[in-house]
């Protein structure tokens, strides 16, 4: 088993697809950060749609995007790499253009815009992972995937901050943000396409196999336990954005500043620690690391349960402190889950394997807000105890 014991920036950029591709990732993330957090606000404020109608249209876009993911997997398995990444960005350009063309009160054009944005958002992760897996091998690939996530989170954070600063301009500023987002997607697509990368027919190297493969080198084909567990694991991505603000503001009656501080801290931790933690954990089998991530997330959920019992005085600071543990679990999970899929899948079906993984991720992200908001009114034990039990069971399934 090849291990990565040091972080070499130039090698990391090369393993991630090269400098142009790294710039494409940064520009794409910046554009996404400008618009994605405020898409609901755009529908309500600029187009005059009701919040339920806007939310339903956005959800439909996410679901439709998931439906298109299997086709993306088959396209990747025909050898396409940078073309698929560029296409996922160009599709979002169409979405932004439709958003600009939508007159006030027209829900159908807004839904069409959300559809194209959803397709691009769901197609991109599998395409990006396949591209990196083609350029790099072994633990260098794991570090490159982690580097891409850190870069993307940095771009998303900067974009969101810029968008927040522009919100004082009202509807005009929101329309301008949409235009800038479309231009960013267009520039990113051009840069990604210019890499001109296709997969070469190859058999995965023996040294790049996970320890839990079959004797003939073929991995378990369906990955049912991994994909099922991933649906639960991915809930951690919505904890800083949905669960903690819900608990802090509506139940603990804490200042919204605490929610903002938790979100900013989570982003900073992911940007700064994603690569170092992934490199540090590279000395252990990927499956074991993913199981450890589940244990860490379980511990953080139990920590949230304990923190919410402290009352209004110490509760909010305790929740913020425990959120650091949750962020660490998220980092370990993100650094091992996709890497495990790329290590288990033979090169000839890598695209379809990544597509199945993205389906489980997208499904988890789609249902987690509903599950969290349904459990929260029943008390901290129902919310955090339920998440802890489900995550621990998932970690046990992964370990087995």
From TrEMBL:
Broad class of the protein's primary localization: membrane
Membrane topology term: Multi-pass membrane protein
Subcellular location field: Cell membrane
Record-given protein name: MFS transporter
Segments traversing the membrane: 21-43, 49-72, 84-101, 107-133, 154-170, 176-195, 231-251, 257-277, 289-307, 319-345, 357-375, 381-399
Database matches in InterPro entries: MFS, MFS_dom, MFS_trans_sf, MFS_Transporters
Signal peptide: none
Organism per entry: Streptomyces neyagawaensis
UniProt KW keywords: Cell membrane, Membrane, Transmembrane, Transmembrane helix, Transport
Occurrences of domain Major facilitator superfamily (MFS) profile (ranges): 222-400
